C-alpha cells in the first residue's frame, strides 16, 4: 500500500524539526531524483518527496496537515454506515476549511504587499 503520510514519506517523526525535515528531504532527493535514479518509480517517489517536503517545511501548511491527521484519527474510530456518511461530510468540510484558510492567507499576503508598495510610493513622493 502507498503511504500518504508525509512524515513516513520523509522518514521523520511527527515532531521533527525543520532542520531534520530538510535533511531527510535532501537525502531522499539525492537518492530518488530521476536524473540519478533510473527506476521506473523514481518520478512517482520524487513527486511524493516534493509534496511531503512542501507541506512539512511550511509552518502553516504543516499545522493544517497535522490538524487534518488528528481529525482523521478521531473520525476513523467507528465503522457504521452513519459514521461513514459523517466521515465523508467531515472530510468535505475539512477540505473546504483548509482550502479556504490557504486562500485567505494568500489574499492577506498579497494585500499586505500591495499596501507596503503603496506606502513606499507615498514616501518616495514626499522626497
TrEMBL record:
<dbReference type="InterPro" id="IPR036869">
    <property type="entry name" value="J_dom_sf"/>
</dbReference>
<protein>
    <submittedName>
        <fullName>Chaperone protein DnaJ</fullName>
    </submittedName>
</protein>
<feature type="domain" description="J">
    <location>
        <begin position="5"/>
        <end position="69"/>
    </location>
</feature>
<dbReference type="Pfam" id="PF00226">
    <property type="entry name" value="DnaJ"/>
</dbReference>
<keyword id="KW-1133">Transmembrane helix</keyword>
<dbReference type="GO" id="GO:0051082">
    <property type="term" value="F:unfolded protein binding"/>
</dbReference>
<dbReference type="InterPro" id="IPR001623">
    <property type="entry name" value="DnaJ_domain"/>
</dbReference>
<dbReference type="GO" id="GO:0005737">
    <property type="term" value="C:cytoplasm"/>
</dbReference>
<keyword id="KW-0812">Transmembrane</keyword>
<keyword id="KW-0143">Chaperone</keyword>
<dbReference type="GO" id="GO:0042026">
    <property type="term" value="P:protein refolding"/>
</dbReference>
<feature type="transmembrane region" description="Helical">
    <location>
        <begin position="90"/>
        <end position="109"/>
    </location>
</feature>
<keyword id="KW-0472">Membrane</keyword>
